[in-house]
């Protein structure tokens, strides 16, 4: 099994040479099932970190802001939503911010809210959007008042454009176990230095506790702060964000998630925070909701139908889609759960040449070949995925490390659409070099920070639409 381009210095010439071999071998049709990793991990139970763990520590000081997190706040990356919680009283919803080289502090005014869930009442949740920032600039920001001001920083992305290099981290189904902590640590220490996290859903798993104990939303917010206060995480809603619990009198889906995590959905004309799009550097990122209606005529369907033709690949060559439930998944967990959405949207993904689809939900890692399965109608029997140059690569990255443990059971034999699969926790990086090439790799937690377990050069579907499959 050859892995094309196993180091970031791989030259285009080498890529081209291997490409010829790939094309020849693929001429006979889809290659046989890909690689199931032989990596053997130590079998250990995945356990949540106890409430008194240092990663959950409450910052000192009366009413000190905690659970600080940021996400993109506008269409193009000049806006940032800053969110945090004050536990004792509302305090101030203002953010003070200034560019690194400036003395002049500016103010943005936010809003505060709280919510109840069964017998839990949240702290005071603040959301403040900062707009009209300069591109490619480091900003410091402060939240809190009096003795309990806390200071953080972030760097805005470069101006949107086709050849802007940018590095996205990929994390999914993180939870708050000891393994979650390892995943986050590995991401933070990865020398590739991710600039923004594309998070594919399932944040804290509070719903796994009695009465959906929302205290676990708070602990997760404090745990993740060390990364998400300093770089934006782009949120996807997973099934563990639903918190639909009629037995507790809680009938409104996504209640804790929508109160705590905002998205810039209005900037892309979406009508709900669960599906939206942003531009960031050279990427156009579409976030979809596996747990909101997507049938014909539904708001999400209509939005996506109008959204895809708007993508200008001359401006943002990389078209990335995020969702929670994977369409191509060969594990015996959540098998076929993504099938109905695939049936609805896959022809569009092929038509508009989506480069890559990231999903979570399955607690393991898998990367697909470029395949599509859109030929079927009720009489023709054509229901097998086929190799398709216009199709995305599908990557399941639900291996953040939550308390539910790993998905250890795979369908056998490995289907032909599956290029690489492995039952380990980890994270991935999508490192855009220019309009034609991006380098992708996946890192398991057992290895050193710089070690990659799976990798692939992506050739952009618009500007370099030839086969970039890694498995031969
Ligand atoms: Fe999930």
From TrEMBL:
Keyword line: Glycoprotein, Hydrolase, Iron, Metal-binding, Signal, Zinc
Signal sequence coordinates: none
Domain of life of the source: Eukaryota
Domain named Purple acid phosphatase C-terminal: residues: 391-450
Pfam (any one): Pur_ac_phosph_N
Annotated catalysed reactions: a phosphate monoester + H2O = an alcohol + phosphate
Molecular-function GO terms, alphabetical: acid phosphatase activity; metal ion binding
InterPro entries: Calcineurin-like_PHP (IPR004843), Metallo-depent_PP-like (IPR029052), MPP_PAP (IPR041792), PAPs-like (IPR039331), PAPs_C (IPR025733), PAPs_N (IPR015914), Purple_acid_Pase-like_N (IPR008963)
Purple acid phosphatase N-terminal domain residues: 65-156
Record EC number: 3.1.3.2
Requisite cofactors: Fe cation; Zn(2+)
All copies of domain Calcineurin-like phosphoesterase, residue ranges: 167-365
Family recorded in the similarity comment: Belongs to the metallophosphoesterase superfamily. Purple acid phosphatase family.
UniProt name for this protein: Purple acid phosphatase
Organism: Rhodamnia argentea
Gene symbol of the encoding locus: LOC115735792
